[in-house]
Design goal:
Rossmann fold; alpha/beta; 7-stranded mixed β-sheet; 204 residues; binds S-adenosylmethionine; 35% helix
């Protein structure tokens, strides 16, 4: 008889919220209490699974509103035998505003968020002035937010809103982090489309 692979027997990495009005207890999500990093809009999990493999000393929560993509993250994570990764199906802004404990997150990763290029749709962009306040609320005192996009106009908006918020200051993105690419990023690079990145840490 064929032996079951660890991926087939490992429990699902998809976290089911017990409540949508009480804040999460990160200690209850992972077997080990260690610094928490959150990726908003994880897509198929290409970045998060590889980065979680590189950093077993950190916990990672991938946030994605599409169930099919969340299932991909789950499959990849279980195949890799990861215990420091969880996926959650929720709207990113709602998670930041209502579910993450205050000052609980060591790093936020936001890579290639939907660009909403039409002027009348820009109000739908995730990264705006209000978002900087929500990120500040969720991040620990020395927490960092990492951003990447291929959309020049959206990048300008990201840089403008963080520059206008004095509780953040610009920092370098470590090369080790930049080297771990996302699914969309791999595709952009393959087509020769330039991409942009920026990172901000809490200044106060
Ligand atoms: C353009 S894709 C980028 C995916 C991935 N970060 C990458 O770079 O390959 C944006 C992803 O964010 C998800 N998404 C968009 N808005 C979201 C929101 N408000 N909350 C959670 N996920 C969202 C989409 O379903 C999609 O998977």
């Amino acid at each position: 008889m064929q032996q079951a692979t660890p991926a087939a027997t490992a429990p699902s990495l998809i976290y089911k919220l017990a409540s949508i009005v009480e804040r999460l207890d990160p200690a209850g999500l992972f077997p080990t209490v260690q610094p928490l990093e959150v990726e908003l809009g994880s897509g198929d999990g290409s970045f998060l699974v590889n980065y979680a493999k590189l950093h077993p000393e950190r916990n990672f929560l991938g946030v994605e509103r599409l169930l099919g993509r969340l299932r991909k993250i789950d499959r990849k994570g279980r195949r890799a035998g990861l215990t420091n990764l969880r996926g959650l199906r929720i709207e990113s802004s709602y998670l930041l505003e209502y579910l993450l404990p205050l000052q609980s997150v060591a790093a936020l990763h936001i890579y290639f968020p939907d660009p909403w290029p039409k002027r009348k749709h820009r109000k739908n962009r995730l990264v705006n002035a209000r978002f900087t306040e929500l990120a500040h609320q969720a991040l620990k005192p020395d927490g960092v937010i990492y951003l990447r996009t291929d959309d020049k106009d959206y990048f300008e908006q990201m840089v403008t809103v963080f520059a206008a918020n004095p509780t953040f200051r610009l920092v370098e993105t470590p090369a080790e982090l930049s080297g771990v690419v996302t699914d969309f990023e791999r595709n952009f690079h393959a087509r020769g489309v330039p991409t942009l990145q920026a990172a901000y840490t809490k200044a106060e």
